[in-house]
Amino acid sequence: MNFSKTIKTYFSGQKLNRLWAALLLLAITAPAHAELIVLSYHEAHHKLDNNSDFDAMTLKTSELAAQFSWLKERGYVSINIDDLLAAQKGTRTLPDNAVLLSFDDGYLGMYTQVYPLLRAFDFQAVIAVVGRWMETPNGKKVAYGTKSVARENFLTWAQIREMVKSGRVEVASHSYDLHHGILANPQGNTQPAATSQRYNANTRQYENEKQYRQRIYNDLKRNSDLIARKTGKKPRVLVWPYGAHNRITMDIAQELGMPVTLSLEEGKVDLQSPGSINRLLIGHGITLADFVWQITDHYKPQKELVRAVNLNLDDIYDPNPEQQENNLGVALEKIKKRRINTVYLQAFSDPDGDGNADAVYFPNRHLPVRADLFNRATWQLRTRAEVKVYAWIPPEAFSSKTVTLLGDLYEDLARYSYIDGLAFYHAAGLSNDEHELVERARLYRPLLKVTHKKSETPSMNGLEKN
For the domain bounded by 308-462, which CATH number is listed? Predict the structure, then answer.
């Protein structure tokens, strides 16, 4: 097949001279050999409708064809899950410039737009379907995030079976009904259903660990059984909704026969890592030049100037919930105004300033809770101020506690909050006990990072009042 002719057909009527000049430049700068790259797509249409519910993650078919053409002409090889599993086991090596294509959510465009391109370019792909959406009858609405959309926007099982029969498409689980948020704290934040502890506003209690595990197991098994019943094949791949996962969910996926799990973290793919496989998210409006930059530069370390501040929840806390919310809102605005990108958030309460923890700000098994505030503050900081949040909970603040008890505390901290990492003072490295605490926290936040907080980092009180 002449792929240059193919892409010209898709781009007929556009300014081809500028496009081909860009392609020539990109061909020069692209590497001869690349790591395994896994791409995350969603929907495709010939013409985008500005009023569409899916535009944020939808590509024009012409854009997708241009990307496929560039991959083909640069020697990228489309692999399947058999290839990936063999490489993980060491029985077969992957080809140079291997790429795995994945399409999330099971949109209709997978059949009408993407499938013809897979055949034209001799590519393969994984599609991830949500059971509840698939089981919604025609004429009814699918609960798509906070919106209701027509069931007809999604694939039918007949279309899926046709694609599977071709050998070009493998069906992955995208959960049965975890592709939404659930109530995760008393203040009303909804957070990813797969990794959040459900909060019951009526009883004012969280689900316990046994209930959480059973909820996840039941959901993933239900979707696995559904896919097996409808296609004749049990899924071997689980694509995490929103990329949210932890070690518990991964263990359950493995138990249910899904050894391959895909996240939305960027970076190199480590085939020997027990963690979920990283993917590059290809979104709406991406130019071909942007696409090539993602492919060629995604694994390079990105240096970012850290603008950090200490935030003490004792300064936010107030017995009046309305005043407490106001205090948090003021802090968020100061952080945004000062272009802070990293917050060290103190998770324990030390109102007398003696360095000892009198209580903490998150549910836990052992210590008093001054207020269930840490999750709320973390979520608001990440979503409204768009900063990285590192929990500041030094072991020395709990000097009388055993390592086992502290391990429970760190695990509970991660269980009930969406933190990016943990902050310690020791620039020379962590002690063995501290390493153990980090690993306990990673049960619920496997991607947790560790940073070394500088003693001169300013506090929120040090920021200007206006």
Answer: 3.20.20.80
